[in-house]
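> tool_call: predict_assembly(chains=two)
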Amino acid sequence: MTGRGKVSLWRVHTMATKCIDYNFHEIEPHWQSFWEHNGSFRASNQSSQPKFYVLDMFPYPSGAGLHIGHPEGYTATDILARYKRARGFNVLHPIGWDAFGLPAEQHAVKTGTHPASNTQNNIVNFKRQIKALGFSYDWDREIDTTDPKYFRWTQWIFLQLFRRGLAYVDERPVWWCPELRTVLANEEVVDGKSEVGGFPVERRNLRQWVLRITAYAERLLADLKEVDWPESTKRMQEAWIGRSEGAEILFDLENRALGPLKIFTTRPDTLFGCTYMVLAPEHPLVDALTAPEHRADVEAYRRKAAAKSDLERTDLAKEKSGVFSGAYALNPVNGQRVPIWVADYVLMGYGTGAIMAVPAHDERDFEFATQFKLPIVQVISSGSGETKLPHVGDGALVNSPGYDGLPWPEAKRKITADLAARGVGKATVNYKLRDWLFSRQRYWGEPFPIVWVSAADYAKARALRGQDLPAEPVTFKDQGAVHYALPLPAGALPLELPNVQSYLPSGTGESPLANETAWLEIWFNVTTGAAVPASQPLPAGDGWVRGRRETNTMPQWAGSCWYYLRFLDPKNADALASPEALRYWGTPDLYVGGAEHAVLHLLYARFWHKVLFDLGVVPQGEPFKKLFHQGIILGEDGEKMSKSRGNVVNPDTIIESHGTDTLRLYLMFLGPLEAMKPWNPRGIEGVHRFLQKVWRELIGADGQVNPKVSDSAADPAELTKLLHETIRKVGDDIEGLRFNTAISQMMIFANALQKAPAVSTATARAFLQLLAPFSPHIAEELWSRLGGSGSVMAAPWPAYDAARLTATEVKLVFQVNGKHRGDQLVPVGTTQDDALALARANPKVAPHLEGRAVKRVVFVPGKILNIVVE
RNA sequence: GCCCGGGUGGCGAAAUGGCAGACGCAUCUGACUUAAAAUCAGAUUUCCGCAAGGAAGUGCCGGUUCGAGUCCGGUCCCGGGCACCA
């Protein structure tokens, strides 16, 4: 709490409202302004308290406003943040805006207004909505990824990637969306359509920036063992990285002039079963090795395959297609001639784009071989009886001279080693993970801090600032000329977006920035990073070269890859965050957000974090040690909420009708946080009634404290015991993110409160402290009215007394043959013999024992007595 | 096809291997009220029974156990993810 210098304000605001009934319209804004004036949620970077950093996935401020899914996750983290503060932690609970993105740009294309103004409008609206929910964010740390003070450091991180050779340029087939006029990452294409907008996409060759995430594949995979994440999310990342161990094997071609053909296989042990080879249609050797009499067929097939999108290629899985090339390779183990086919079930992008086909032990090869009547040779036997082909399971080798009888994993090792000894193969690891396509042909994104220069000018720059440049220059060839990528010096950042005439991308695939000649074509000072339009005279002095700026911008993921670090020290102008802040706060102790980011944001952020770790910027190897996904809230009809279905719930409506305390409570009471659950307006009434009941039990009809609540009142014994149970359960449940059962327990307590003839102020206040993280406004109001000093949140979390929880009597359940036959209150410590005697005497139990011999007695003290009879 | 989740009253759900259905919704009955709302008291898994009581019951089949919603094997259905990755 930082109340210094604000004593008078504090006084004014500590007072409760004057309302007589539970008037949330008055209470909620009142306490929100109290918190704001007191800076109640400011986190300090200097503190002797233990730290706790709880992070939400920051929202994209869309024009539609807050969706009900936002407050679900945000309420969960807010409860935890408030609880941890009460437990004496210095809590960092920040929020910001992931504000670059396509919708703002599309809006700009339509209206001609700058995307920044639309974005700012949306932020204002989001902020209003989020503030109305009463979340305990430290607004002094608010960040906006489109703010040059922020993206300066996004660009800085890119420069580090660039310097380490982790960013390069490549002309490659990419997903191009004609409607959006931009390329999309693999991850942004769903079922052949753009993830945003659902427009069709096609393949195009374009010059792109690519980040070498594959260099980190092994660590991204291995370090999943270190994090406390949902198992399903870890599995998804594992599958996405897709590691497989196998071997690269060289097959000599019959036409030895062409050199060997390199294939990748995970099953080198089946080498003797290879009856044909397949090259992807794009494989560079196809042209050279195709026999003249097959050329026409192969050419036709390649053209057909090129016209297909990846989707069609994979979608037409039912029937395989391919053509024979007329060429043959020689099997390195036995010199057998193997025909080479061209087929699009082999993908150029994985392995070497060429395979050895073993139809007996691979389903795809089996299907292909059957269709084209190619031989099938079994080399693995499942052991007993006939092996049904294709057999992809366990077994030992057959028909493999020198290896017969070996279990396949052993044979795999041995054959690989033997091939390696002869120099015709080696063990390798392959990943499905591809390098990350990192550029977009858009306006509304971070500009790349890169200027393209000539070879001679690059050499000049290298002499002046070699340490900023990668070991290998990044280049691309355009109409015979080679262009060199020269980074801006870090001191010249941020590189801001110029204003443009039109937000429409150019039809050639370049972003709207390509039309801004004055920004684009420049005299560039290689040491200072200063720029002057090339239309002006060459400035005096050394270090000026002619350059053209990079016109691509970064994808939306860039800003969200490191925002959790900026919150630690959001105003720092000298670094993305100070080393002290990075050391004190570390990484989030808990990260809550939707499961839809399982392989996108969460993989990219891990990659950047590891690079920053290697640079010595951050002290930990993983950014998010504990992750939790909130479930999706469905519409009332049990369907996914959507505008077209008309089942969308707007948080504003609920705040207006029931108040945010009710909304927050309801969102948490709906079911387990991680579950998918339907919205039910009736349920809101239920939790609202609970809050009204709490109010009524503590405040009388006249608006004064209920006469039954007083300092001198003696609580009924059961109420005291229940209070301590409730303190324990609510605390445990908050720690375990089981908010629904915590609320149930508070409801049970409220019901007891109602029945109690007298309640001590201390008990009432302790209960309000438990309620405060969930429904903070009403808790503050009642706390204040009961004479609590300051904020309810400033009071240390109540402790439960274990002694109060132990009862003197417990209910013992009597079972006969495992069936419940009766029960009885017994003193704690009742022995088995006594319990047995009680059971025999019990009128409900006795008839079931009559005339039957007792075989066994199971006794769980204080719980159960099970009598097993004949 | 493969990999994850999940199937419990009319509904949302709860249950360290130990009384299945806490808590809430909805419904019904009663009290208060001229009346309604609100509030309060009570009932509400199914079947048999006037009742006392009994029997069955956590998708389905089987197993382990004194005892299974919970653990194991199989199976069906629903949701999510991946999908010609050699």
